[in-house]
Structures are given as structure tokens and as C-alpha cells.
Amino acid sequence: MRNSGIDHLFSAIVETSFGAVGIRTEDKRVRELVYLPATFNEKAPTDAIAERTVQQIERYLDDADFRFDLPLATVGTAFQQKVWQAISSIPRGSVLTYGDIARHIRTAPRAVGQACGANWFPIVIPCHRVTATGGLGGFGNTDDEAGFHLGVKRWLLAHEKVEGYQR
């Protein structure tokens, strides 16, 4: 089995050009989205919300202008939700820095970065559109320049045709 036998944790797994996206659903809502390496096999949806999520992720992968409309579980602190709301307003093709978001919601850039890392719904809440002042910044609680997560961030920014990121 290519995926270490943990595919049962997901209601569906979508293969992508950058790896895969694991989808967890609960109580007719998306509970979590997880970026997974290419070692994970695609998994057919086990419920209607997982099917809807797969369809929307596939539409986004075909058209970066696609806008998600999914029932998301209520997770995170009030502060994290405030950051995620600010991130959700960043249009496709644009990025803001951690400092830009921090100034907008009157907090510190590091706190914005921590909230980005705690995002339960990456791709839907586009934390990949938040970068450091001097470069890419972190992603998925990692800043390993050659690591999987920053590779995903680069792919997403290129997919959305952000200047300076090509596939």
C-alpha cells in the first residue's frame, strides 16, 4: 500500500499535480483538508460532502478563478477566524504579507503566521497567498525551503499566476 495505511482517516483523497489533498468530513461539513505527498492514492468519496469537496477542488485545479462554496466546520479561536477571514479576502493572483494582514486586523505578523499555520482548510482559505516581506515565507508550519509544503505553496501561487512564480 503506497499510503502507509492511513487513508482510512480521510473521507476522500484527491490526487493533484503537487501531491494529494486529504478530505475529512464530519456532521455534513468539511472538518479538515490536508496536503499529502504523492505517495497517497486517490480515494473515492465516502459521503456527499466529500464528493462535493472533491468536485470543487478539481474545478479549482482546472480554473484558479473558481470560488469555493463548502460547508466548513467551525474550528479555531476567534483570533484565528479573524485572520482566516482576512486571508479569504485576498483575490486570486495577489499576495499580501504577514505584516499587511497584521496591520489590517491590528496584531503582530508572527501571530498572523501562527494562524496561517493553524488553518484547517488550506486551498479553501488560501493561506498560500500570504508571504513574508522578503520572500515566500513559511507554509503548513514549516519553512524548509526545499520541503514538500513550500513546494505546494509555490505550485499554488504559480497556478494562480502570481508574478514571480512559474510552473
Name of the level-1 CATH class of the largest domain: Mainly Alpha
N-to-C CA distance: 30 Å
Compute the number of helices. 5
* Nearest-integer average pLDDT: 92
Q: Looking at the structure, what is the overall shape?
A: globular
Global structural class: alpha+beta
Fill in the CATH topology of the largest domain: Arc Repressor Mutant, subunit A
**Secondary-structure element sequence?**
EEEHHEHHEH
User: In order across it, which strands form the biggest sheet?
Assistant: 1-2-3
Helix content: 25-40%
Task: Calculate Rg over CA atoms.
Answer: 15 Å
How many E-type strands? Answer: 5
The CATH architecture of the largest domain would be Orthogonal Bundle
Major β-sheet profile: 3 strands, antiparallel
- In the predicted model, the low-confidence regions spanning at least 5 consecutive residues are none
Q: CATH H-level name of the largest domain... which superfamily?
A: Winged helix-like DNA-binding domain superfamily/Winged helix DNA-binding domain
Number of domains: 2
As a percent range, the share of strand residues is 5-15%
Overall description:
With 167 residues, the protein is α+β, with helices and mostly antiparallel strands. It has 2 domains: 7-62, no CATH class; 78-159, Orthogonal Bundle (Arc Repressor Mutant, subunit A). The protein is 33% helix and 15% strand. The chain has 5 helices and 5 strands. The protein has helices spanning 48-62, 78-88, 98-105, 109-117, 148-159; strands at residues 12-16, 19-26, 29-36, 96-97, 130-131. The strands form 2 sheets. It has a 3-stranded antiparallel β-sheet, with helices on one face. It has a two-stranded parallel ribbon with strand order 4-5. A hairpin with a 2-residue loop joins strand 2 and strand 3 (29-36). Helix 2 crosses helix 3 and helix 3 (98-105) packs across helix 4 (109-117). The longest helix has 15 residues, at 48-62. The chain is globular, with a radius of gyration of 15 Å. The mean pLDDT is 92.
